[in-house]
Amino acid sequence: MVGQLAVVVSLVYVGVQVEQNTRAIQTETTQSLYLQGAERVVPVLENAEVAELLIRASRAPERLSPSDSLRYHYFLNLQLNEFEAAFTALRRGTMDVQVGQGWLRNMGPWSCLPDAERYWRAVSQLYDPDFRLELDSAIAVTACGGP
């Protein structure tokens, strides 16, 4: 009887440890994605040239110089990578469901950025097939309106 009780107590303890570890991993994943987002936004806040590039891209992406076009597309790519990281973390259970779904809700509006959908079509084959389906679905239901 004592042996059986010890086994039950041990199993409960292991369950609690697993739950705590899962929460810690989810928190670390969330913090990592937020830091990635901040690293992408800080240059826009601190560097007027970067901010001006994004403004020019929002008005007429087809009129960007080749180097500015490359920089803008890398900016779009960083966002795609963040979305895929959130999607993967959510699928693996290493991100809180509500937080992960919040990240994924931003994918449709992302496609409304100038040239974003065209860029996505050009690079989509580089991404996980399930992520491609998720983003394509988000784009399909997003209505991009003008100002």
Query: What low-confidence regions span 5 or more consecutive residues with pLDDT below 50?
Result: none
Number of strands: 0
> Radius of gyration in whole Å, from Cα?
21 Å
Number of helices: 7
Q: How would you sum up the major sheet?
A: none
The figure for the number of domains is 1
Global outline = elongated
As a percent range, the share of helical residues equals over 70%
The whole-number mean of residue pLDDT values reads 83
Structural class: mainly alpha
**How far apart lie the N and C ends?**
73 Å
Strand content: under 5%
Q: Sketch the topology as an H/E string, one letter per element.
A: HHHHHHH
Question: What secondary-structure arrangement, pairings included, does this model have?
Answer:
Layout: H1 2-46, H2 48-59, H3 66-92, H4 97-105, H5 107-110, H6 116-123, H7 129-140
Helix pairs in contact: 1-2, 1-3, 3-4
Give a quick set of tags describing it.
147 residues, elongated, mainly alpha
Structure explained in plain terms:
This protein is mostly helical and 147 residues long. The chain has one domain (27-140). The protein has seven helices and no strands. The model has no long low-confidence stretch (mean pLDDT 83).
